[in-house]
Amino acid sequence: MNQSKITFIIPSVGRSTLARSIGSLLSQTNPNWKAIVVFDGVKNNINIEDDRITYLEINKVGVKNNAGRVRNIGISRAETDWVAFLDDDDTISYNYVNRFEEEIKLNSNAECIIFRMQTGKMILPMQNDNNFHVGRVGISFAMKASLPERFSPSDTEDYNLLNLMRSNKRKIIISPYINYFVRSLPIESSNNQNYPRITINF
After folding, report:
1. Given CB 3.0 to 4.6 Å as the disulfide criterion, which of 92, 111, 137, 143 pairs with 96?
2. CATH code (residue 42)
3. Rounded distance between C-alpha atoms, residue 19 and residue 12, angstroms
4. C-alpha pair distances (Å), 167 with each of 42, 121, 156, 190
C-alpha cells in the first residue's frame, strides 16, 4: 500500500524532457509518492502509466516562464499532506523522498522544506547562506498542502512564495541535501556533507 505523504506538482507545456523528469520520480528509492502533471493548454503527450501519477489537461493559464497558476491548480488537487514541485525540464535526486521523510522526522513542526538545487556548477542556496535570498533559491521546495499561501505570477514567483511564508512566520527548513537538478539528470555524487541545515521561524 502506498503510504504517500508527498505529491509532486509538475506543470508542463509538453516539453520532450518531461519523460526524463518523470523518470527521476519512477527511480525513487522510496516508492511512497504521488504526482500530478498539469498540461497547460496542451494535450497529454506522455505515455507513462503509473497508478501514482495523475495527468490533467487544463485551458492555458500560465504566462511566459511563470508556471505559478498551473502549480496552484495542482496543489488544489493534491490529497497528501505535502506537495513538492518539479519542472518538466528538471529532475530530482533518486533519494528525494527518503530525504524529505528524514527532514520531517527531524523537525516535525516544519511547514516548508527548501532543498538545495544544482544549476550548472552552482548550488542554491549557497553554502554560506544562513537564510534564503532572491536569485539564490528556486522551485526546489516542499510545503504543507494545507497552507493558504499560493504562487502569484512573477519573474521571482518561487522566491515570492517562500518569502511570503517566511513573513507569515511559517516554520521553514533549508536542508543540507542537494535534491534538485536544473535541466540535467540527477547527479548523485553531490557532496551533501558540505552544507548546513538551517531553521527559520522556529
Report:
1. 92
2. 3.90.550.10
3. 11
4. 36, 30, 16, 31
